[in-house]
UniProtKB/TrEMBL annotation:
Keywords: DNA-binding
InterPro entries assigned to the protein according to its UniProt record, in alphabetical order: HTH_MarR-typ (IPR000835), WH-like_DNA-bd_sf (IPR036388), WH_DNA-bd_sf (IPR036390)
Single GO term (MF): DNA binding
Stated name of the protein: Winged helix DNA-binding protein
Coiled coil: none
UniProt xrefs under SUPFAM superfamilies: Winged helix' DNA-binding domain
HTH marR-type domain location: 250-303
Amino acid sequence: MAHADLVYPSREADGPGALYSLTVFSDCELTRARLAEDAAAAGLHVRQSYPLEHLLTGSVLSLGDIVILDCPEVRGDTIGVLLRVDARVAQAGSQMIVLTRMDALEDIYACMGQADAQILVDATRGERVLAVGRALTRNRGMRVRELSADDRVTLMRLTEQVEDIARRLEDFPRAGSDGIFRFESSRREFGPADGTQDGRLRAARPPLPDPRLVRKIIARRQKRRDYFDGALFADPAWDMLLDLTAARVEHRRVSVTSLCIASGVPATTALRWISQLVEAGLFERVEDEADRRRAFIGLTDAAADAMARYFAEIGGELG
């Protein structure tokens, strides 16, 4: 490819051939070409394809409906790029997909605090396509172009599958609702304060369990992988809840990389769970006051309360 900066011809926005628009940023020319090719094949109008430095020079005046940022490593000058694109994408209301590696995850996560980006770690081509599909389902305002009959059927089937995945995630009950993420008080928490039905006092929350006990439970769960396929027992939400519970009692901060490892699933999958659990009110993003480029994950007070009551209830059964 002769030119490093790919600019694709614009299309009539409201015409019969209207496309979703996409902007690609990567310092690797081959990666830019592959991402642009994949996106175009999926029916996206690739508006621009640039190196990362264009985000700092101000030469990129507008962004597409979806922004793909390829950043496999983070150098000193990359931090500014990440912070800038995060703010711009959030302001523009676009959807962002960030491609990176495990070694760069900490810096990437810390800089992506506004745009609600999908972060993919060592992503395969299939994972990239699914991420684009999720971005399409998130942005209901984007339009579908006219397709051939075969392309329409293929895209429809893919979209149905992606929307089903997205729907399952979006339908997770939020904090305070009935369902798997439930924080409301159990009936035993409240009781008559003066012997009447009207008086109510909240029972004192039991303490969180001894972290040594939690670590023992975690070790037992991980031991199963020595004898069985780990995928049989994948339960990332619970494994991360256990890890954060122990860390809270230990007064230890947990990095996003560490939590991904504790989840027992691939990092990209773990990051999607972390995003959902933050949205559900179980996890919270904790900025590092000493270094704004770092961020940690912790339990919310509501989640800590739920874990404390859970362990208090089953404590006698742990053996």
